[in-house]
Amino acid sequence: MSNPKEPAAVLNEFDLEGPVISARPYGSGHINDTFLVTVQTDDGGRAENASRSREKRYILQRMNDDIFHDPKALMENVVHVTSFLQQKIKEQGGDPERETLNIIRTKDGRSFVQDSEGNPWRMYRFIENATSFDQVEKPDDFYQSALAFGRFQRMLADYPAGTLHETIPDFHNTPVRLAAFKKAVEEDVCRRAAGVEKEIRFILDREADTHVLTDLQAQGRLPLRVTHNDTKLNNVMIDNATGQGLCVIDLDTVMPGLALNDYGDSIRFGASTAAEDETDLSKVSCDLELFELYTRGFIEGCGGSLTEMELAMLPMGAKLMTLECGMRFLADYLQGDIYFKTHRKGHNLDRCRTQLKLVWDMEKKWEQMQAVVALYGGNTGK
Ligand code: ADP
Ligand code: GN1
Ligand code: MG
Q: From the alpha carbon of 102, which atom of ligand 1 is closest?
């Protein structure tokens, strides 16, 4: 379990529009320490409002440098990707202040600061009147998130991929993840492996699946694209007024990758009938209606750019991202919960179990999943 670091020390470094009223922990991300910062602004002395003061909000984050070893490279990516997106959004007549992240610079113009202990911190404009959901509350939100993640990928189609730093090497290289998982089992530093033999076996039994997509990629049959790589539902903001997917956030892992991973990660999180850490596994399954909604939205959002092979492999993308996430949670449990934030004993094990239950359920529904994909993606699997 981790304790967020104190933000007070760095607040003064950023170029804010007024004095800070409050800074409180915010959101439910597993990686960074996130704070909502509120400042008081005045109206600039305009006569009609002379006595009225307003508030403005920001997101402050301590980047997790145990995970992102090179915060400077990470922020270079974020600076470049957000300015690229702002330009595209402007060209398309959108609002660049709400439809992508906007970095708040320090008073001396830097994109992040380090506190006296060397912790890296950055700040974003808070996206008002929009919501990031931890679970699907309304099916249309999930469809809107699919459109948003699909469009995100399409907007980055001509981004110079070679200039991107790989912020976490082999992030979605499932065979490499499997090797790391096996090592965690062998080392068993917390002596927890004996209690999770069933889960370990479940993962090892699916070793052959783990390299299906990386093999296709190596054979040049799946294209590398600039992808988000962390497409959970709570990494997209839905506009409260229009109900549309407004802004894709959490850009720390934007790197060259497979479209299938972005698709699959969304399915594993959002098409589940239960929360990622649900302890009652009877509640966990892959909802085929949500699966269908997301599939339709993602294909549409990608605007016809997915290849036939990508379309055919969508169900495999969903299954592999779920399996990979399951093995990452279990590896972390075995290693003593050192990667993902946990909030209770056995949290990572609970998370692992929901992922494996989902994989099991997807295997049962495999033909139906393929039929859905065929419906929206044309002639697949041949
Ligand atoms: P993590 O990597 O830990 O998941 P995120 O960047 O996703 O961190 O931020 C955590 C949460 O904070 C998000 O799920 C979202 O609810 C909220 N959030 C992040 N950035 C913004 C923003 N610019 N405006 C509004 N909310 C935000
Ligand atoms: C982490 O940062 P967050 O909470 O959006 C993780 C993802 C996992 C996810 C599981 C950088 O995402 O890869 O799929 O948790 N991000 C990183 O919920 O490891
Ligand atoms: Mg996040």
A: 23
Distance 30 CA to ligand 3 centre (A): 7
Query: Which residues have CB atoms below 5 A from the ion given as ligand 3?
Result: 29, 235, 250
Task: Supply the pTM of this predicted model.
Answer: 0.95
Question: How far, in Å, is the centroid of ligand 3 from the Cα of 223?
Answer: 25
Is there an atom of ligand 1 within 6 Å of 133 CB? no
pLDDT, tens only, 271-309: 999 999 999 999 999 999 999 999 999 999 999 999 999
- Which of 24, 34, 66, 86 is the best mutation target for the ligand 1 pocket, counting ligand atoms within 8 Å of the beta carbon and taking the most? 34
Rounded CA separation 68/283 (Å):
34
Q: State residue 298 phi and psi, 5-degree precision.
A: -70, -45
Residue pLDDT, tens place only, 60-117:
999 999 999 999 999 999 999 999 999 999 999 999 999 999 999 999 999 999 999 9
Q: Which long-range contacts (CB under 8 A, 24 or more apart) does 306-309 make?
A: 306/259, 306/377, 307/222, 307/223, 308/378, 308/379, 308/380, 309/216, 309/221, 309/222
